[in-house]
Amino acid sequence: MNPKILLTVPLLLLCSAASAENDFHMNNEFSLNYNKVSGPGKSASSLTENLNYLEVLNLNGGGRKSGWDYNYNLGLKATDDERNDIKTVLLTNLNGVFRKNANTVSLGDIFESFSQYTLATSLKGASYKYAKNGGRAPEITALFGYAYPRWDSVWKEPLTRTVARRAYGARAKENFSDSLSAGLSYINVKDTGRVNAADALYDSYNLALDLNYNPFPGLTVAGEHSLSDYDENAAGVSAKGSATRIELVGDADPSRVSLEYEEVQPDFFSALGAAVSDRRKVKTKWRYKYSRHTTFNSGLLWYRNNLPGSSAADTTQSWRPELGMAVKKIFSARPYSFADFSYKFDRKFGSGSSQADHYLNVNYRDRFAGLDSDSNLGYTLYKTEADVRDASEINFNTSLNSRQEKGNWVLKPQLNLGTWYSDDELTGYTDKIYEYSLGLGAELPGKNITSDLRLGQNVLKKEDAASDDSSRFFASLGAYWRTKIMKYDSTVFLRAGYNGFDFSTSSRNFREKTVTLGVNTQF
Amino acid sequence: MKNIANILITLALLAGTANAKWWIFGKSADDVEIKYLTINSVSADESGKKITLFKETLQDGTVKIKGKAKAGKNQIGSVRISLDDKATWQEVKAAENGAFEFFFTPEQGKKYVFLLEATDTTGKVNKVDETRKEIEVSAENIRGKITEVLDAMFEAYNKEDAVRFISYVSENFAGDKAFLELAAKKDFNALNNINMRYTISNIASGSGKIFASITFNRMVFVNKTGRSSTDGGTTEFVFEMDGGKPLLYSMKQPLVFGLSDADNVATGEVIGNTASNLELDETGDLNYGTSVTFSNPDRSSYTRTYIFLDGSLESENGFATVLIGDIGVDIMHIWIKSGVESKVISGKSLSQVTLADLTSGTWNSTNPAATDVSVGKVYGFKVGSSYYAIEIESNNMGDPSFIIKIRVKSF
Fold first, then answer.
1. Tell me: domain A101-277, CATH 3.40.50, correct?
2. Which of A44, A217, B49, B144 has the fewest CB atoms lying closer than 10 Å?
3. Contacts 24+ apart (CB under 8 A), B17-22
4. Domain ranges of chain A
5. Quick one: pLDDT at residue A198?
6. Is A280 on the interface with B (CB under 8 A)?
7. B215, B351, B410: which to substitute to probe chain A, counting the most A Cβ within 10 Å?
């Protein structure tokens, strides 16, 4: 199929559908952004200088024609800022869905999530689904399309051209009983049209069986087994592999228990699904509500790679136990007091490396005389042998928030303080970060105005004389006014920001000033 | 390890036949209870009290309620459902075994207060109030909801707020939530002044999940080195709905979150990205680009050359000859193949080089392209329509043999 048909067919159907319009919505946002970067180190900035615009338009609607219910969606974006998009004008969304009784046809951007290992990405193409409410008829889905990340890749724009990844597949799902359902999925993927000489081109398929079983209330058993077979012609590799996952979840007060096992063979390949190959994983979690105010959490994650076990030296194993406790009303006289504690241990060894990291975290929230406070203290110990990392870190953050009503105004002052301290045993250097920020939210509910002002500073102090100290002073303002423009619900917004970066090496210093004015309109 | 799988399967089968619910105590065998209840395929046990649905995710525009009531030795006599907080009740046809199905077409924006009443043949009734759920089909477009969640995730990540960030990640996260949580904490310890922005390119929904494609750019400071780095690209997320809230289900390379454990966090890669994207290594430093070692035992007999596109190293006969590779290296020169252009990038480390540094200014096509191969020197190259930059990492200045290490970044 010529990929351009992917665009033409939905557009024609969309025009046809629009002629029988009875439901139409639009969301449009236009903004002008001015960035000014100055200073000798300005090239390190990630902003595009001077005046730029961003226009994002979305049209969607629906209705009924000749017994078919339909919905459509069209999205366009225009910008002259390469940070927003490399193309000046682009089609972002194009999708039409047509339903009649048990039949659903989707065209354009289609997203049919078959199963984790087979299909979990969007395609540009067409799908058909048969799903009858009630009864025991299986749910059938079939699709064809291209896994282009963008619409302009479809017509092979030089800037966004990619390998053409064509896919077709089908899924049948059957409810065998009230508590047991299973699905069989097949997806075939073939890459054509190499862009670069070294691009890998895959010709593959995945077949998967997934099931869901609820033997009694609160217990769910779910799993999937998938087979893959692929040829990759750049490196001349052909391989077959499998992936399996099983999960048991028991959920009924006072406990929630989960047990998960996953094994993905090194040669398993999923072009459009979601899988990390060469991994065997076991994971357990237990949440226990000890009382109305106290909850315990515990978990263990173990995984390893190099499943064929060809060489012990290539095998990495990891253990990650964790333990946590959360207590509401930790002090009976303080109804808003809340504390949680967690400890996580990350042990990884093999392949010539041995790592043992400890993470301790304590959080306390409370309210004092109308002030909400939230404080967090963390301690992390990193140890990776041999002589890769031996460091400890302490971080502390605290914030104070309040909400005050003054006449027609609602004021939300905020103070944040933070510090980070890192001691590297290998280099003998200690680094420190200090952060503070002040914020003030101001709202006029009667006038539909909200605003937020923040200013603060981050300071990084490096003990190593060869590295620069740095500091960033920042200030930002955001103001939003919800109003009607030509009878339509709109939001006018203004965002302004200032960043001043200073380094020990003054030739790296730079300043960023940015102002954005925009309007969002929808109906 | 297959034994573990067998044990799990056995446990699952045993659990299905067992009468004892090993974590629930104190229930009478004759109570009328709801064996299971699902609302649009989501178990009522796992959904919160409020269920927000989006029009785009409804199959046929309907809400499907399925369940089964059980009454010990007795049979279920009737099942009724209320959608208006007990004001009115609708009889639902139940099978002999207590199974029932119910469909309704909701109005957008209207709140439905759902309750289920199952009565057995002796008149016993289930605990009706325990089935109470508030169901609403949001008037908000799913695009708006995804934008809201992405805004919150980017803001939490920019502010290095791990707790808030991880609250937007699903328990079912395909790369494993535990990996992502630790990776995000490592990111926040390794980076400072994170400044990431994005615009949405595409959103599509179906089968209960939502797909989002974004264009992003970012600038970060690395605590370990005190250096800044910028990059950008196109990447994809998948979200799944949980209690009306979209939660992150999977992420692809290039990663925007969890740079410290890319192998375990990302599931898949977006095709079409040619740039080198940021990753953090186990020491908390940026692991950007590719490290390449030029090892030449006889520099007067041949030149060690390199092809950017596939990273292949070749040896070509003759001193300073570059016919196969894009560039050739010796201890004092960098040579280029005919058609390749070069430039010197002054005052920057490789991690700070942006595409703008390469697309602006003038290029040279003369040989040698460089006469200074000392550590820290940065050069840019244009090969066809592709841009690359290199930084000299080490140079042992050996003569007649040498070992030179460079780091290569593509754009």
1. no
2. B49
3. B17/A215, B21/A216, B21/A217, B21/A218, B21/A219, B21/A252, B22/A250
4. 1-30+54-98, 101-277
5. 67
6. yes
7. B215
